[in-house]
Write a structure and sequence with these properties.
The chain is mainly alpha-helical. The chain is built from 13 helices and no strands. The termini are close together.
Length: about 375
Amino acid sequence: MRTKSQPREYFLDSIRAYLMLLGVPFHVSLIYSSHQWSVNSAEPTLWLTVFNDFIHAFRMQVFFVISGYFSYMLYLRYAPKEWWKVRVERVGIPMLSAIPLITLPQFFMLKAWTGKIPGWSSFSLYDKYNTLVWELISHLWFLLVLVIFTTLGLWLFHRLRRQEKGEIAAPGWLTLTLAILFYSLCWCVVRRLIFLFQPALLTDGLFNFAVMQTLFYLPFFCLGALAWRNPALKARFVRFNPWTLAGAVLAFFAYMANQRYSSGEGWMYEIDAVVSMLMGLWMVNVVFAFGHRFLNAHSPRITWLVNASLFIYLVHHPLTLLYGIFITPHIHNNALGFLAGLMFVFGIAFILYEIHLRIRCCAFFSGKKARPQP
């Protein structure tokens, strides 16, 4: 049974789409940053490194808050089993389709044209399996995590729905900050114990995607669901608080310092987790407040981007690699190369999106599936 639909919240749709589309400048800037990637320019550029770090430090945390918000909204609209089916169709089918059609060809492209996967023939069976997991799931990892969250949501949302309804006071930013800090420290303890007693697990692709990433983003997904259930909490998120901006700025400086001065053999990943979770929480307020102020209106152009965002995200990664492999070496100005890369990737992705709209059987690439009207 379905409940009555709520009015569309355009600013959340817009934020979700823009966060998805930020994957393009994130990966294009990665080429020109000081971070080692599949493809890199001859020399890194500082401002593109900082730009890349900024996107990476908060984007997916905010994205999963919005995902939790809309997931719980749909949970209340459908029967639980129907809700699970609808959600898995929207995220699972694009992921499973993209593996043979996008990331598998991308694997062969990396193997043939880059030095990322040397010595493949000498790999053990497990090393080949693990490399394939890392490369085939690749930038699709968040879809796998959403499928896991959807399955966990059958239990989490059932408990949330059974709780007493009514007006509930929203926790303040200090309480939220302490809660996220405590959770991040627990995540760090789990990772450190694995590092000490089963370090091989941390290099296993499936374990990282299905367990560590799921645990990392779980509180943000739950925050989104709580924001739907508790209007006072949602109101706190969309009402700008200057302290969250100040905290996000300080957290970003700490994030960059950790990237540059910490070591993977030390506490780099644990510090990264604490800082990223806190920055993600505070950026929820910054992004929601900005979006509610400037993006909370219907626009056909924005609607087109919302509908196109998943498809563009799916196809942008191999396009970025192709650009990095074949075009980047011929552009010696990194700023110009970055802008040219954005035009190359977005331009081709937009064209491919319009082509796929005209092929009925390809609708699943946008996370859509034609269903009979109720």
